[in-house]
Each structure stands twice: as structure tokens, then as C-alpha cells.
Amino acid sequence: SNTSGSSSSPANYTVYNNGKPTTTTGNPYWATGCGSNYDALYSLASTKASGAGAKTCILDPTIYPQLLPDNKQTTLFTKASIRHGDEKLFTVEMLNSESYIDSLNPPQVFGAQTDYDKLNPGVRKPLFIKRNSPWYPGGSGGVPAMAGVTGQDLALTWSLDELGAAGTHDRQNTNRIVVADEGAFMGWDYRVGFNGAISERRVGWKKGFVTIPGVYAGVADGTLNPFGKQDAAGSAYLDSISVDGVNFRTARVKYFGPDFNVSRELMQLDGGAMAIAIGGDLHREMYSDRTSL
Fold first, then answer.
1. What span, in angstroms and rounded, lies between the C-alpha atoms of 93 and 79?
2. Measured on CA atoms in the order 78, 261, 198, 293, is the torsion positive or negative?
3. In this prediction, what percent of the chain has a pLDDT beyond 70?
4. How far is the CA of 220 from the CAs of 2, 121, 136, in angstroms?
5. 128 CB neighbour count, 10 Å cutoff
6. Alpha helices in 178-265 (DSSP H)
7. Distance CA 193, CA 113 (A)
8. Is the per-residue pLDDT at 226 higher than 80?
């Protein structure tokens, strides 16, 4: 059976008095099955009728099943060699790989039970609707009045189902080239080479995401309706704060540099040949990680 809801669509609320939460909770559409005026039914009425968390809605768990993410990985490796001079070999290797993971998740949620800022996990802020909003229960927007709600601030837990399932993408590309020449020169066996590689990873919002501060501002000034379908102004506002197609994290790693080794026999001893080998490597690694939230 359904228990008390958390984030839902329409939003659940907790009454605040003097800046502190009370045990009074609810949802303006709980009594009518949590349907509101949406084009589809996203939530079900909870079965808890009294106490904290009572008369709230809960998201229908059958709408957004957790499926395996769409993913793909491709790799191309190419190698070419050519012999030149006496016992010398010049080689070029190239590697290109690309992978992606596209995940589909339940809609974006807002309120004190979710992180306000991805850069500061654990920082959470109540999402308040106040009596000046037309969408306040009993206000001019047509949201039903609720017993015990008489103008106090209401902290919301809201799931933005109107935008549908939230999708993210994670893409990574790696390119590497290795050039080497090896052979013998004036009695020495040698190998010299150069290694260069670049790897980039981009993680972003694919669909169904908006800025969190934008949602808080839109609810506070009455533009967004957390209890039902958006009107024209609310829909336009959601479009204006959309971050669909935006990468919120881009990381790059670069590696390049030469290396060498030479060796030769010096003399024969009773136990075998005495030899000498010398090698070296000089490379540079660079790493950058940018976020855009």
C-alpha cells in the first residue's frame, strides 16, 4: 500500500510557523486522488490519513521504471610499420575510442529533501510558496483551500513531471598516437619514440532539466504552479530556465612526450656478455575539470 509521499506532482507541503516546520502536511489534491489538472495522472494518494506526512501524494512507481542505460563503445586501432636502412623499423600506432552512456531517470525533484547545488552536496533549502502566490491553496489560481492552511509559508516537495523523465548523457573520447623508430647504429641498439594522448569526458543534461535557483525563484514570485499544470506564463518560464543540451562537467587529460633507450654489449665474460643500457622519458601531463551549473 502507498505510504506518505515525498516529492510528487502535484507538490506536497509542510506548514511552517515562525520559520520552523510543523507536523501539518498535506496536498491540495489528495482528497481527489492527486490528479490536479495535469494531462496525465502522475501520483497516487497516500494511505496515511493522520500525523506527519499524512494526506500527501506519492509518485506512481510504475511510470518511471529503472531501465539499463543506453550505452555504446567503439574502438579503432591502427598500426603501420616500414623498414628502412639496415635493421631499422619505423612504426606509427593510432588509437581512437569513443563511448557514451545515456541514462533515463525519474523527473527532476525540488525541495528540502534534495541537494540544492551539485557543487555542494548536502546543502538543502526548503522550497517555499507564500500567500502572495496565486497558486497558494485557496488563492486566485484555483488551487483548493486546505484546512489548517491560513497564510503560513508552505515548504514544498515537488517532482516536475510535466517535463517528463529526466535524461543525462556521459560521453568520453580518447585519441592516442605513438611514433617509434628502432634499430642499430654504430654498435648500439636503440629505440626512440613519442607518445601523445588526449582524453575528454563530457557529462550533461539531455532532457527534462531546469536550473534549481530558477525553480525556486519562479515558485516564490508566483510564476510557477507547483500544484498543477503550468499556464502559458509558467510554461514559457520553464523554457527560459531549461538546461537541456548543456554540459555541466567537462574534463580533459593530455599526455605527451618523448622516450628513448639504447643498449650494447661491452665485453664477453665467463658468465656471459657484459652489457650496458640507458633509457629516459620526458613527458608532460595536463588535467582540467570544468563545471557549469
1. 4
2. positive
3. 95
4. 30, 23, 10
5. 17
6. 212-220, 232-240
7. 55
8. yes
pLDDT at position 293:
60
Beta-bridge partner residues of 156: 13, 127
Contact 46, 57 (CB under 8 A): yes
Find all residues with CB under 8 Å of 50, minimum gap 6, and list them.
none
Q: How far apart are CA 287 and CA 181, in angstroms?
A: 29
Distances (CA, A) of 242 to 98, 129, 250, 265: 27, 21, 19, 69
CB contact at 8 A, 132 and 222: yes
Backbone angles phi, psi at 271, to 5 degrees: -90, 0
**Looking at residues 59-87, what average pLDDT do you find?**
88
Distance CA 268, CA 240 (A): 80
pLDDT at 4: 57
- pTM assigned to the model: 0.78
Which residues are paired to 207 by β-bridges? 167
Residue 204, all three cell numbers? 550533461
Is the pLDDT assigned to residue 25 strictly greater than 80?
A: yes
Alpha helices in the chain (DSSP H): 212-220, 232-240
The three three-digit cell numbers of residue 91, written as one number: 612504426
Peptide bond into 10 cis (omega under 30): yes
Helix (H, G, I), strand (E, B) or coil at 217: helix
Residue 115, CA distances (Å) to 87, 106, 167, 191, 293 in order: 64, 16, 18, 54, 13
